[in-house]
Amino acid sequence: MRKIIKFTTDYVGYVVKGGPKFYAWLGFLGIFVLFWMYGNYMQWTEGMIVTGLTDQVSWGLYLANFVFLVGVAAGAVTVVFPAYVYKHKALHEVAVLGEMLAIAAVVMCLLFVFNHMGRPDRVWHMLPYIGIFNWPNSMLTWDVLVLSVYLVLNVVGGFYFLYMKYTDQKLNKLFYMPIIYIAIVWALSIHTVTGFLLNTMPARPLWHTGMMPIRFIITAFAAGPSLIIIVFLTIRKNTKLWIKDEAINMLSQIIVWCLGIALFLTLSEVVTDLYHPTEHSAGLEYLMLGHNGLNRLVPWFWSSLAMMVVAFVMLLFPSVRKNHNKLVVACVLAFVGIWIEKGMGLLIPGSIPSPIGEFTEYYPTLLEIFNSIGNWAIGFIVLTVLLKGAIGILLGDIKYAKE
Amino acid sequence: MKKYNISAVLIVLILAVVSSASAQEKKVVTKKAAEPQKEVICFESRLGASEVTQREIKPGLPNVKCSPKTGAVLWWGDPYEGTVPMGKMPIKADYSKGVAVVKPRSAKMALLPICGTACHNGTYPPLPKNKRPRKLTMHTDIVPDSLNLQHGRGAIWCLDCHNTKKRNKFVDNFGDEIDFNQPQKLCGKCHGPIYRDWRDGIHGKRIGQWATTGKKRWFVCTECHNPHDVQQGKRNSGFAQLAPEPAPILPKGMKNADHERHHNTDESGQENKGSKQKGH
Amino acid sequence: MTDKKAPKNNPDIEQTSTCDTTEPSEKNKETESVSPSRRGFIKQMGGLSVASLMGTAALLTHSDDAEANTTWAEWFQGNYRLMTDEEKEQAIARLERRYTSEFGKQVTVDGTPAQEGVLFGYALNIQKCIGCRRCVKACVEENNQSRGDKQEIEWIRVLKMEKGEFTIDKMNDGYPGGYGIQVGGNAYSAAGVVLEGEHYYEPKKVPESDSFYFPIACMQCEKPPCVKVCPVRTTYREPDGIVVVDYNWCIGCRMCIGACPYWARRFNWGEPNLSSKDMNPKTHYLGNRPRMKGVVEKCTFCIQRTRKGRYPACVEVCPVGARKFGNLLDPDSEVRRVLARKRMFRLKADANTYPKFFYFID
């Protein structure tokens, strides 16, 4: 017990201390958090009327970010999976960083879900026993279930590993390995279920396709490692932890594969829907070409496609993958491209036209954007702190000292 | 000019079947225009048929709520206000399980009781010799071109519906009287299938209780259809065109609904545009 | 009796002792109806914590203990479907008090349950509808929706379907090959009928010569997708077939809005705007009682009227008698006669939702 208290105090003491760069970064994120506080206050007092959402487009920026971030959380498995299943040495050393990223991503997911809810004060209605948890009927309850379990798995797995490292003890494989393997499968499940959340609604033909879960997973496995590479390169630049080139190489290969498959799936969907467009293709047509002068989403779609194609072509060349300056560009393109594809490119056109054929354009309001950026800022603060702690332990900066 | 005629027919003639009664109507309408904030008079199904004056039944509970745009009744606090039992129908059928009431039209047409004595007393004006169409000198406000009566396209004539001897009654196929409050018995002479659907509650309008055995106010034929002008507009639906209630408010993010393109330039609407408010 | 019921009940007991408002007789009845053993149990179980929470709330607001208690009691109340009869009575009494003071007139909240042997059904004569939108407005008069420019909620949407014409000049517009295919079904070129209805049509007069109209509201499906996706079962199908929402239990996730193929559900994005003058004081707990922000609402076949025997407001207002309503289990009902005699269809039958709302033609 004393060890655990010591671990906590050491850990907290370590993560709150840092150089000017660290504080500048946190301060930078903190500015967005201030806007976020204002935005959330307004949304809490006025209701969701402060957002750009309407009865026609009732799922917007918040849920789009949620869906994307579930993908990022799941994408963390691209570090863990090669490390433990294929015994990838370089990744094995830093696998715990993937888990930290997953935790931060799930935290962001929760923040976005709370923003999306009309009555967050009633969230206890979902708790089993005191409320009603409509499981297994409601797909949303599945999503809640898989996400919270995934959070627990990563927190337990990650911090158990860090704690053992901190106290310089050997991992209990019987305890740790099952967690890791379950977490790997679970990562797939969180994005699969998020896919099911949308595609089990025949009322929304754009989503009602069996392709959704695999598209979700494959784009997640491109977006997730893109972010991880950026994070890894930042760590290499700013800390003493040297993440090996093999690790980054592995991840960039995963990205190129997944990006290629993602583009292929997009192509398949477009051809299927638009070769002979039916009424069910109206959403995709609106997204790609607009509708009678309504073309809010058209630039988003094409820019997303362009970014993904450029990133894919760049990453095809080993020279780009090896050159970390170029690699970062490709990763940013892939990340942003996929963010658009899942948000403006998938979630919003799912509601346009409405099930009875009404075309409504959706513009997020400033407050909605404040809240969204704020959620990301909080997520990055969490990520920074978690990574700092994990790196400190990996480097041996914090260690259990026997008095 | 023709347009003007049609509109005149629409506005004035719908209001009443008997000319003297329509004069009475106009008075009411003028009164409404004079002091609109005092007394709100709304129409129930079609313009010119039954009307209701708004008042409170109980504090906070109005007898009717009306559309601020069109003046149509939108909501009945008391669906049976001013009704009387419908009376016997010629056939016993399922409809007779419930309680049927109607709003008497005789009350609305104030001169109806005396038109059988004051003008048409049975000897003067002289009774027509036969039922052949002839040019009317009176009641041209109701039927402007009597030689081209639109109802039946020349196949029928006034006295196929109106009782020759008793002008405040209709006439059935045997020459017997039909009350003005029961026009369905008259209309059912020709419009058999629709009469049957109406009796069974699947044609026409009813308000009150939904149960088969419940009490309902039945709207009779002339409360929705104008028998003297059955060719209303190009659409020829048997129901007069009317102004719609306002469109929904555009959702956030939309400045207009121009993307909802349409081709028909609303000719029929234009046609009625000028005449819409005339006489009201 | 499980422990989870205790906190839900307790606030009311507290309330009956602290606040004195309109209906003392009813309140006594309430207190009496809670059996002694139950009360004892409540006192033993978790009641303490809730009571202290309520105390805090009352302290925080100072001004109006009764109101604070009501708010907290509402916040802690359970799902209406699972409430005991006493709990329902208490919840309803609480709401009546609140609405009456909020709107400054006597408001009744009805809790009439479904009648035995009744399954409500609706039939709409698509041939008769003239698109006048009176049903839309009558629904608003009846059901206490939010009004005004900022947030206007209407449960019925009427679409105008334009027929368009087949014309000779479109003979060479075909694809592929330029041969005469009269391409209809889109807003640019109506031939036959457009598939895209117009939602915001506003001609001088209806019906227009070249159009027909298509009103859409909640279909009260027998297999409602909205009910299935609700994570907290706040929306459910009542025994008489009406799909209802317990507004006090809704968490505002809007899964149901996504799942509904008929776009029948609306969300209170902000606090509803309903004036005392416009407010219809005859309400039902599951129907037209005033809503709060952040919850979903929808057509309930005017549950407050139909459970008391009255036609829904839209049925009564329809000037052409296109709307028919009744008990689907009664072969003599108007709706059953329509089904027996007319040609009818269900909207989006392919969605397998089995609406109890039928469209028919003569």
Give me the CATH superfamily of chain A.
Formate dehydrogenase/DMSO reductase domain
N-to-C CA distance of chain C? 55 Å
Estimated radius of gyration of chain C? 24 Å
CATH class of the largest domain in chain C: Alpha Beta
C-alpha Rg of chain A (nearest Å): 21 Å
- Shape estimate of chain A: globular
By DSSP, the count of extended strands of chain C is 12
Major β-sheet profile of chain A: none
β-sheet strand percentage of chain A: under 5%
Overall helicity of chain C: 25-40%
Give a written overview of the molecule:
The complex is a heterotrimer of chains A (403), B (280) and C (362). By secondary structure, chain A is mostly helical. Chain A has a single domain, classed as Formate dehydrogenase/DMSO reductase domain (Formate dehydrogenase/DMSO reductase fold), CATH 1.20.1630. Helix content of chain A is 72%, strand content 0%. Chain A is built from 14 helices and no strands. In chain A, helix 4 packs antiparallel against helix 5, helix 4 crosses helix 7 and helix 11 runs antiparallel to helix 13. Chain A is globular and about 70 Å long. The mean pLDDT of chain A is 94. The N terminus and C terminus of chain B are likely disordered. Chain B has one domain. Helices cover 21% and strands 12% of the residues of chain B. Chain B has seven helices and twelve strands. Chain C has 362 residues and is α+β, with helices and mostly antiparallel strands. Chain C folds into three domains: 78 residues, no CATH class; 178 residues, Alpha-Beta Plaits; 60 residues, no CATH class. In chain C, the strands form five sheets. Chain C has a four-stranded mixed sheet. In chain C, strand 5 and strand 6 form a beta hairpin. Chain C is globular. Chains in contact: A-B, A-C, B-C. Chains B and C meet through strand 6, strand 11 and helix 7 of B and helix 7, strand 3, helix 11, strand 10 and helix 12 of C.
Task: Briefly characterize the structure.
With 403 residues, chain A is mainly alpha-helical. Chain A has 14 helices and no strands. Helices cover 72% and strands 0% of the residues of chain A.
Which features characterize this protein?
heterotrimer, A: 403 residues, mainly alpha, Formate dehydrogenase/DMSO reductase fold, 14 helices, 72% helix, C: 362 residues, alpha+beta, Alpha-Beta Plaits, 3 domains, four-stranded mixed β-sheet, two-stranded parallel sheet, 12 helices, disordered N terminus
